Input
Amino acid sequence: MKKLLVALAIANTCMTSHAFAENEKHFRHIMFRETPFAPYRGIYPINEQKSEAVTHYEFKYDDKQRVTQITRKIDDHVIDSMGVWDSFIWFAPQVKISYLPGKEVHTYFNTKGEQISAHGAVWQAIYQLGTSGNRQSLEFFDKAGKAVESEWHVHRYEWRPSEDGHVFEKRFNLAGEQVTLRPEFKFHEVKLEYDNDGKLVFVRNFGTKHQPINNDSGAGIDRITYDLNGNFIRWQVYGKDGNPVEGNRPRVHLGEHLYDSKGNKIGLRGFDRFGKQIAFSWGALSHVYRYNEQGIQTETKSYKADGSFQEHFVYTFSEQGTRRTSLTALDADGNPTNDPRLKGAAKVTYQYDEQGRAEPSFFDYKGKELAVESE
Output
């Protein structure tokens, strides 16, 4: 029961180990969250002076040291994700959290400070809390206050403790049917096992009948490992009886995230159960990412199963780093190349109006502007 109490205590207060003395802290990154049962936790703490120059998350706290607001920023500028993955459960540039008797309410805001719908039509995410403040359930509502599903087809999460001190989670759509963790992660009811620091280390599939079960890929257990900085460095996939398999959507046994000294994810690769590097189900053997001094991702590159070049994209940004100014597709030799994902263009440039809306222009590999209808 000790592990559950530790995890719940962290979830109840939404604190980090650096949050006791002040009402505001800055972190380069957010710790991985597989489900919204877990709290938001900052990793790679930085001081206020450093936060003026790099992308980061600003955490604010109330007098009870509960998180009340998290904003992704450079200096005082609110910014969006710019394609950088930190956590599955992060859907807007800013999240505000309010506390009512027995409830915890999350709302979402854009870079201009306007409340928005996030992850689909979710206007409010409302947790129901137990008498000790532990999270028991979560429901999503739209702007009109009506029940709504997220982009993952979830309306309601339910949590209850397991006999050995961990947590069971179920998810339901508006029809009351159980749904999977994510559309591409085919675990239904899951057992979430946390370590003594409140980090998720095992996800076990209990299907729709509360029994350990494998999904159609042979996967029944996901094991998650972290480094000493709190980075999610690898996952491993097993069948329900503990036998290693190449399963779930990536179809690898072991997936590995690589990071630089600042916690930026610079690589992704996968291995089979025998330790041989293999391609993911989408065809890439590995992914490589590069960042500038502001912590903004400026390049993505991937390689095929035989090690040959697959794709390469380069991004440029405004001097302050608050807006993307161009996106270019490059070939194996580093030259611009027309790409169907850019509507047949090799380069897209962006101009912004007074409301901050991006107006794209499209160019072919020779630099000739193309007549492309924007969406």
User: Anything to note?
Assistant: The first strand starts at residue 24 and ends at 30. Confidence is low (pLDDT under 50) at residues 1-21. The radius of gyration is 21 Å.
